[in-house]
What we know:
- The protein is 58% helix and 0% strand.
- It contains two helices and no strands.
Amino acid sequence: MSINKRSGKTTISSWIVLLLVLTGGFVAGATARHSSVAQADVRRTAERTTLSTASARSETVLREISSTLTRIDRRLERMERLVSKKPD
């Protein structure tokens, strides 16, 4: 809204423009067609193959732990054999 520098008051034309814009918005909102029926499409999503049950995850983790421990055990055995050999 423009302010008249002499009187410090807004001009009447700016109020008229504001009133017309608000009225236009109200009329546009009131006359818009609103459907009271929701449109939805029900779809089946693909099953997630990446997710597994807790027991399946545990089994995988335990197998990995077992293989790691087996490798560590073999390395320790080799180290013990090297240490136990007496230099002649």
